[in-house]
Amino acid sequence: MLALFVVLAATLAPTTAEASRYASVVMDSRTGKILFSRNANQRLYPASLTKIMTLYMTFEAINQGKLSFDQKLKVSARAAGQTPTKLGLKKGSTISVRDAVFGLITKSANDAATVLAEAMAPTEAAFARMMTEKASKLGMHRTSFRNASGLPNRRQRSTAHDMAILGAAMIHDFPQFYHYLSLQSFDYKGKSFKNHNNLLSSYKGADGIKTGYIRASGFNLVASAKRGNHRLIGVVFGGRTAKSRDLHMKSLLDKGFERMELAQPSVVPIPNSRPVSIALGSPHNTVEGGIMKASTASTAATIPTPQPAILPDPSDGDWGIQVGAFSRVGNARDQLNHVTGLTGGMMDGGRFNIQKVSTDSGSIYRAQMVGFTEQNAKSICRTLMDKSVACFVVSPVDGNLIRVARN
């Protein structure tokens, strides 16, 4: 199968004259396993892929209460003066965080990127230093940022591998926000801006993430797609045109899904295991400010094997927790992924147990994780309740929900 990837890359990769800026990676989002790579650690110009980190840090600030989607941000002269592509923001005007985020996702607006950067740091240059520090914490050790937009700067470099790490971190650290990256158009002040990521409408399962282009980089793309139980992240640097880049990405992802399906056929339904080891050698296993970050360990964490949903067995003391009931199974899964990152590793080793329950008004899905002792389950719930997350302990005897005292 690896030989197929080599042949594929040789067929679709840029010519010799362009090879110096070409790189690609296909990664299993859940485990961090690299299915294919070429020049993956070569430091290249990320162009507007840089905005993925700007979005990541914006979502982090929203999670921490430092920003809100409805908050109005003032447009500085520097922001208004950024070169296209942009929304055309005027000096002294305001824009909401939400509109700035949507402008980044769809139009790849450079003026909106600067507005967000200046809302989180004294200057865009200071924000770029924060971006580089965050990249290092996520395991992106060959990345350095110099601005929030990806506009040309010879010291702003990244790698295909690092961008795959960032794409996975975006998906797994902010499941409550990631769906915004599938936004296909955005209306702002009478104008409609179409998302540059054409895979959203032309590739089965594609739901993000971001395109990029400057002359020095060629056409770049970080893309994610989900089919069955498998989610892949693909990265292409240095495409000759947007069209050829997109065709190359589709072929790489197709081969990736074929390989995943051969190795682990999809069985429906199987709840997702907690996504770990995203950074390959710097697994996400510690928490800072409620956001998962990479440890400094030099070896990848052991990846838990996905387990089918099972009811707690009273014979093995299999206590659990429940953190909500939802009308969609995806929402239940997203909530479990979210709260896992809030407990500082307390939920490591637990198993997702999403229960479908039929009611007169339809089906609901209970978001549960099992596999804990009674004491651990109660401690987890207290921790989550301190973070304003509703939580119940699930008894292994009869599945009853037990409210625990916070202290």
UniProtKB/TrEMBL annotation:
Keywords for the protein's UniProt record, in alphabetical order: Cell shape, Cell wall biogenesis/degradation, Hydrolase, Peptidoglycan synthesis, Signal
Signal peptide: 1-19
Residue ranges of domain Peptidase S11 D-alanyl-D-alanine carboxypeptidase A N-terminal in the record: 18-240
One family name in Pfam for this protein: Peptidase_S11
Family: Belongs to the peptidase S11 family.
Protein name, as recorded: Peptidase M15
